[in-house]
Amino acid sequence: MDDGFGGQFSTIFDGSFQPGVTEFKKTGLKNGLKYSFRVYAVNFNGQSDPSPVASFYACSAPTNFEAPFALSQSTTSISLQWT
Question: What are the residues facing 56 on neighbouring strands?
């Protein structure tokens, strides 16, 4: 993961010797910053090439929204609306 300012990548999780761990939640991100992530796989053969970089903006979860309601739905799609 980079620092949110386009800096160098640093390791935020090392799953060595934890083969059952298949997800990781990064906390402590600053709202409005764009963070970039990449993943490596490691096994007895060594480290893989990195995944393509994925970038995301950190933001707070929305609050005080009414629940959405379905406008129309079928077996393959749904249209929602909320205020």
Answer: 35
Which residues have C-beta within 8 Å of that of residue 16, sequence separation ≥ 6?
42
Per-residue pLDDT of the chain (83 residues; tens, 9 = 90+): 999 999 999 999 988 888 888 899 999 999 999 999 999 988 888 889 999 999 999 998 778 888 888 889 898 999 998 87
Q: Is the pTM of this model over 0.70?
A: no
CB 47 within 8 A of CB 59: no
Instruction: Report the alpha-carbon distance of residue 10 to residue 38 in Å, rounded.
Output: 10
CA distance 47 to 5: 26
Give the rounded distance of the alpha carbon of 40 from its chain centre: 15
Nearest to 2 by CA among 68, 60, 53: 53
